[in-house]
Amino acid sequence: MKIKQIVSVFFLVLLIVGCTSKTPYTNRSQMILISDEKELALGEQSYEKTLKESKVIENTKDSKRVKEIGKRIAKVANKNYDWEFNLIENKAKNAFCLPGGKVVVYTGILKVAKNDDQLATVISHEIAHALARHGAERISTNMVSQGIQILGNIAISTQAPEYTKSFNIAYGLGSQYGVLMPYGRMQENEADEIGIYLMAKAGYDLNEAVKFWENMNEGKKESIEFLSTHPSSETRIAKIKNIIKNIEKKK
Ligand SMILES: [Zn+2]
C-alpha cells in the first residue's frame, strides 16, 4: 500500500467511527458520512427546484387535506424542521419527503390513498425515511463502495452536478422513485415501522395502513427487479400487521 492509500484508509476509518448514529424508534446504528447541514442544504435546493418545475395545487380540498394531515404527523414527529407539505399535479402514485421536512405528494397517489388515514400512511412513511436519514445513509454507503475520494467529497460544493444527481437518486426524487422505486428493503421495512408509530401517536386508524398497501399492490405485477429492492407485498403487509399488533398489546 502506498502512503497515500494508507492515509486515505486511516481517514476513512476515522470518518466512519465518528459518523455512526442511531435511527429514531428502531434504534439501529447507521453510518452517515454527510453532515446535517449539507443534507439540509441539498434538500432545500432540490425542493425549490421541484416546486419550480411542477404544477403545485393550491387551495383545493385535497391540497388542504395534504397540509392538515402532514401537520398532524409533523407535530408528533418531534423534530425541529421547517415543515412544508405540497400537493403536485402528477399521475404517478408517488410521494417523498426531503431532508428538513419538505413533503411532496403527487395527485396520482390520491387514487390509492382512499381516505385521510390512508393518506396519513404514505405521508408518515415518507417522513419516516427523512427522520431516519435513509437518503444520507444511502449516499454514505455509495461513497464507501465507490472507494470514496473522501477528501474530495468533503470539499465538493452542494452545487456540483454529480452530487445533486446522486442526492436525487438517494432521496427518491422524480416520478420513478419515492413510493414507487424507493430505498432498499431494510430501509423500506424500517420506514413502515416508524411510519406506523407516527400514525399511532397522531391518532390515525392503523388498520388503514394495511389497506393502503393492499391498494398500492392491487393489480401490480411484481417483477424480479421490483422484488429485489422492495419487501414483497405479502411480507410487507404481514410485517405491518405485526407492528400494529404489538402497539395494540401495549395499550
Ligand atoms: Zn419508502
Distance between the termini: 58 Å
Overall pLDDT confidence = 81
- Encode the helix/strand succession as letters: HEEHEHEEEHHHHHHHH
Query: How many β strands by DSSP?
Result: 6
How is the main sheet built?
4 strands, mixed
**Globular, elongated, flat, extended or rod-shaped: what is the shape?**
globular
The proportion of residues forming helix, as a percent range, comes to 55-70%
Whole-number total of structural domains: 1
Low-confidence stretches: 150-156
Strands of the largest sheet, in order across it?
Answer: 3-4-6-5
The hetero molecules present are: zinc ion
Structural classification: alpha+beta
**Rg (C-alpha, Å):** 19 Å
Description:
The protein is α+β, with helices and mostly antiparallel strands. The protein has one domain (35-250). Helix content is 59%, strand content 9%. The strands form two sheets. It has a four-stranded mixed β-sheet with strand order 3-4-6-5. A two-stranded antiparallel ribbon has the order 1-2. A hairpin with a 3-residue loop joins strand 5 and strand 6. Helix 9 (207-217) packs antiparallel against helix 11 (233-250). Mean pLDDT is 81; it is low at 150-156. Bound molecules: zinc ion.
